[in-house]
Amino acid sequence: MARWRTFFVTLGRAPAAPWWGIAAVACALAVASIVLTHLLRLAPCHLCILQRFLFLALAVLASGVALSGARFRLLYRVMAIGTVLTALFGMGVAGYQSLLQWHPESFTCGGAELSPLERFVEWLASLSETLFLPTGFCSDPGLVLFGLSLANWAFLAYAGIAAVGIWALRRAQAPLAR
Q1: Residue 64: which of 26, 90, 33 has the closest Cα?
Q2: What value, to the nearest 5°, has the Cα angle with vertex 114 and ends 111 and 119?
Q3: Which of 1, 34, 143, 168 could bridge across to 18 with cysteines, CB 3.0–4.6 Å?
Q4: What CATH number does the domain containing 42 carry?
Q5: What are the pLDDT digits (tens) for 136-154?
Q6: Total domain count for the chain?
Q7: Is residue 11 assigned to a domain?
Q8: Is residue 33 part of a domain?
């Protein structure tokens, strides 16, 4: 038991550990969204697909931060800040979708013309329909777990990722200030 405790304490002190954690969580969430869509025959909307893409982007960015390490400080900072900004953008997308689900009569998703984000999702669908084809409506909550829709859970996940990313960035800059 003491070995495992020592392992996790040592791992927690490693500068790359939070970034690997973010990458693992983001990848797991992206895979979960794909699996749930197919197993439960969910109909993801444009915003759902965008959030799926953002989780994949977070996994790539956080892995890049973890791999860049201290040797490439500029690359580390740019990718770390990019990770945090992507998580904050994901919070905005998930928050907007949550608002659409809570007040479908007051807000609309989409219009006569596709927005730039919807066009981006359509482009992703042209690359891989299995992963990125939107077939549902943004105001439909779909699957609800413990009273929260998947968009609500995604908002919480993005908030957690952003918080860990900010903490890891501050922790990495602390030795520079001394």
Answers
A1: 26
A2: 155
A3: 168
A4: 1.20.1550.10
A5: 676 677 777 788 888 899 9
A6: 1
A7: no
A8: yes
